[in-house]
């Protein structure tokens, strides 16, 4: 296969021949890719299911990410939604739409990125669809199951006095990486087989911009915290749209307010300050409003293993978010813009 | 809401407020839209899952279909894949990407079309995702389950001597409708609340062009034949890419050839001849190579109820399709072009 063969020339069968070998096989899969639908044996009939898309120009830029990272992110954002319900993900199906001159390597690398993250969390890719579009897009549906009669972890279970806890050591990384991507001072080849690091201008290269861009391109949260938190959390979601907006969602669903503790966020802010100075940005905004972290965000009486506290739910006005008791300015990340 | 309010102005919450009321609720759904993922109780843990996209400009034209029909077709093409495995569909998740100036009515009508066809076959819509794109696209994932240890109906079970049977009274309707759409002689308002019929030039209006265009825009196959055919069929798929191409797939998977019987297709051809004459097309091509019918296509010893015979599997060269023993010209419908 010539390195620049285009997908319309090799056809769906040719692409699948390059994509399918990258997919690990799960013994629970009775029928994998190639028939009208896949058939798999879930651990329980209580299906957990979610779907999410990434679209070129809206959710990623070809100039600052790679096809492999797009695959990773598309997988993770779906796996995180299953995990946030307290369920282990088991399988993914993948729909990719692409321009007719898209190189086959794009399909291959997206598949590799999806398969990599799926395998890391115990899931397999069991089916998909390839089609044409002017823009590259990847839509994944992830499924898992809840054992026995175990209740799903919903958003509405937080109690006044519960801590707001987050399943990761840092906040604001994805927003910082997005600022790097949009600065015009970083570049990554979309078909980069080595998957980075991105090329940066000298000033950015002296910061952790490359690592933050990679986290933005393909966040890597500890998803096992989602199904591992079990009885220890009273409400849970994944952090998609920023601490303030998603914190407000947990609070509103539970009929509560939430107060963020600035002292518990200070290290997050300070770590981002060198990069923020270079880019002329305010690191607190990244920490409070940055989305696409996909860390587990939960309510709990005591801090569960792997989580840390960032605030506390209070019986204040439903859905109100404050920072050390004071109003928070700014708005969360809106996926739909 | 002003009739021309655009979706970026009313936001995701505003759109969902218009879309969600259209979705019937299934008591088997524990958690519906609004949390990170949906939770539903399948009738069995043996999940059947498939995904498929429709993209503006590639899979439909805004000038000759309506948003409601796009929703119907997006649902049916996925429901048909589940049905073809011998399973009843139970639930759908829906990802819609659209330009920022897309009218809210588009989302509403697509949802209505999806919900209508889902409900007709016993399925519900349990979740989704809304995002931005330059082109409108709808990606659906459908799930169902197989009871007990019932085997899925795969493509590779046909036996020499089996009849090739199709679950519908006519073939070539979708291809004929596509020819109408591409003729430039038919038009339908994309937000047509009455859902047609399309406006046709007088010559086309004297044919069944409007009905064929509607079938192309939103085919309405009897999907219950898929899970009802049960032990009566040895292999099954849904007719997506044309009788010749899909017949070849069943034959190839089963290590057989298949001979189509021209006498059994004659009525299909003759019914399409008046329209074909107007459009200067060959109706036999539509019948042999027209895709997107989504009728059940199966192999069976005797004709199951609701099906009719169109050919017979033979021990000839693997995957060869003949017509009355003679070679077939032309190629099937390629979704990926």
UniProtKB/TrEMBL annotation, chains A, B:
<feature type="binding site">
    <location>
        <begin position="128"/>
        <end position="129"/>
    </location>
    <ligand>
        <name>ATP</name>
    </ligand>
</feature>
<feature type="binding site">
    <location>
        <position position="238"/>
    </location>
    <ligand>
        <name>Mg(2+) 3</name>
    </ligand>
</feature>
<comment type="similarity">
    <text>Belongs to the thiamine-monophosphate kinase family.</text>
</comment>
<keyword id="KW-0067">ATP-binding</keyword>
<dbReference type="GO" id="GO:0009030">
    <property type="term" value="F:thiamine-phosphate kinase activity"/>
</dbReference>
<feature type="domain" description="PurM-like N-terminal">
    <location>
        <begin position="34"/>
        <end position="145"/>
    </location>
</feature>
<keyword id="KW-0784">Thiamine biosynthesis</keyword>
<comment type="pathway">
    <text>Cofactor biosynthesis; thiamine diphosphate biosynthesis; thiamine diphosphate from thiamine phosphate: step 1/1.</text>
</comment>
<dbReference type="InterPro" id="IPR036676">
    <property type="entry name" value="PurM-like_C_sf"/>
</dbReference>
<dbReference type="InterPro" id="IPR016188">
    <property type="entry name" value="PurM-like_N"/>
</dbReference>
<dbReference type="Pfam" id="PF00586">
    <property type="entry name" value="AIRS"/>
</dbReference>
<feature type="binding site">
    <location>
        <position position="52"/>
    </location>
    <ligand>
        <name>Mg(2+) 2</name>
    </ligand>
</feature>
<protein>
    <recommendedName>
        <fullName>Thiamine-monophosphate kinase</fullName>
        <ecNumber>2.7.4.16</ecNumber>
    </recommendedName>
</protein>
<feature type="binding site">
    <location>
        <position position="81"/>
    </location>
    <ligand>
        <name>Mg(2+) 2</name>
    </ligand>
</feature>
<feature type="binding site">
    <location>
        <position position="155"/>
    </location>
    <ligand>
        <name>ATP</name>
    </ligand>
</feature>
<keyword id="KW-0418">Kinase</keyword>
<keyword id="KW-0460">Magnesium</keyword>
<dbReference type="InterPro" id="IPR006283">
    <property type="entry name" value="ThiL-like"/>
</dbReference>
<keyword id="KW-0808">Transferase</keyword>
<keyword id="KW-0547">Nucleotide-binding</keyword>
<feature type="binding site">
    <location>
        <position position="59"/>
    </location>
    <ligand>
        <name>substrate</name>
    </ligand>
</feature>
<feature type="binding site">
    <location>
        <position position="52"/>
    </location>
    <ligand>
        <name>Mg(2+) 1</name>
    </ligand>
</feature>
<feature type="binding site">
    <location>
        <position position="81"/>
    </location>
    <ligand>
        <name>Mg(2+) 4</name>
    </ligand>
</feature>
<keyword id="KW-0479">Metal-binding</keyword>
<feature type="binding site">
    <location>
        <position position="51"/>
    </location>
    <ligand>
        <name>Mg(2+) 1</name>
    </ligand>
</feature>
<feature type="binding site">
    <location>
        <position position="240"/>
    </location>
    <ligand>
        <name>ATP</name>
    </ligand>
</feature>
<feature type="binding site">
    <location>
        <position position="36"/>
    </location>
    <ligand>
        <name>Mg(2+) 4</name>
    </ligand>
</feature>
<feature type="binding site">
    <location>
        <position position="36"/>
    </location>
    <ligand>
        <name>Mg(2+) 3</name>
    </ligand>
</feature>
<comment type="function">
    <text>Catalyzes the ATP-dependent phosphorylation of thiamine-monophosphate (TMP) to form thiamine-pyrophosphate (TPP), the active form of vitamin B1.</text>
</comment>
<feature type="binding site">
    <location>
        <position position="81"/>
    </location>
    <ligand>
        <name>Mg(2+) 3</name>
    </ligand>
</feature>
<feature type="binding site">
    <location>
        <position position="241"/>
    </location>
    <ligand>
        <name>Mg(2+) 5</name>
    </ligand>
</feature>
<feature type="binding site">
    <location>
        <position position="333"/>
    </location>
    <ligand>
        <name>substrate</name>
    </ligand>
</feature>
<feature type="binding site">
    <location>
        <position position="129"/>
    </location>
    <ligand>
        <name>Mg(2+) 1</name>
    </ligand>
</feature>
<feature type="binding site">
    <location>
        <position position="292"/>
    </location>
    <ligand>
        <name>substrate</name>
    </ligand>
</feature>
<dbReference type="InterPro" id="IPR036921">
    <property type="entry name" value="PurM-like_N_sf"/>
</dbReference>
<feature type="binding site">
    <location>
        <position position="50"/>
    </location>
    <ligand>
        <name>Mg(2+) 4</name>
    </ligand>
</feature>
């Amino acid at each position: 296969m010539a390195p620049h063969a285009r997908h319309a020339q090799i056809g769906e069968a040719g692409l699948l021949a390059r994509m399918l070998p990258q997919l690990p096989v799960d013994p629970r899969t009775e029928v994998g890719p190639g028939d009208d639908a896949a058939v798999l044996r879930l651990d329980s009939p209580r299906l957990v299911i979610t779907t999410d898309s990434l679209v070129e120009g809206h959710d990623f830029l070809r100039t600052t990410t790679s096809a492999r990272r797009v695959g990773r992110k598309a997988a993770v954002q779906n796996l995180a939604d299953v995990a946030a319900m307290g369920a282990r993900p088991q399988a993914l199906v993948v729909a990719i739409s692409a321009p007719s001159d898209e190189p086959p390597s794009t399909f291959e690398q997206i598949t590799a990125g999806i398969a990599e993250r799926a395998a890391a969390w115990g899931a397999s890719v069991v089916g998909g669809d390839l089609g044409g579009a002017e823009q590259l897009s990847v839509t994944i549906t992830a499924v898992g199951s809840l054992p026995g009669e175990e209740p799903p972890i919903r958003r509405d279970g937080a109690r006044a006095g519960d801590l707001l806890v987050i399943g990761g050591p840092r906040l604001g990384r994805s927003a910082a990486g997005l600022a790097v991507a949009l600065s015009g001072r970083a570049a990554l080849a979309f078909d980069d087989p080595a998957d980075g690091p991105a090329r940066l201008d000298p000033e950015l290269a002296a910061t952790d911009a490359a690592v933050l861009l990679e986290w933005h391109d393909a966040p890597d949260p500890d998803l096992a915290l989602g199904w591992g938190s079990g009885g220890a959390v009273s409400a849970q979601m994944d952090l998609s749209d920023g601490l303030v907006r998603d914190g407000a969602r947990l609070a509103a669903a539970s009929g509560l307010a939430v107060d963020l503790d600035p002292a518990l966020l200070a290290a997050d802010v300070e770590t981002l300050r060198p990069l923020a100075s270079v880019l002329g940005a305010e690191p607190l905004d990244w920490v409070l409003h940055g989305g696409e972290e996909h860390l587990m965000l939960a309510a709990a009486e005591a801090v569960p293993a792997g989580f840390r506290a960032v605030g506390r739910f209070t019986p204040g006005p439903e859905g109100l978010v404050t920072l050390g008791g004071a109003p928070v300015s700014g708005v969360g990340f809106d996926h739909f813009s």
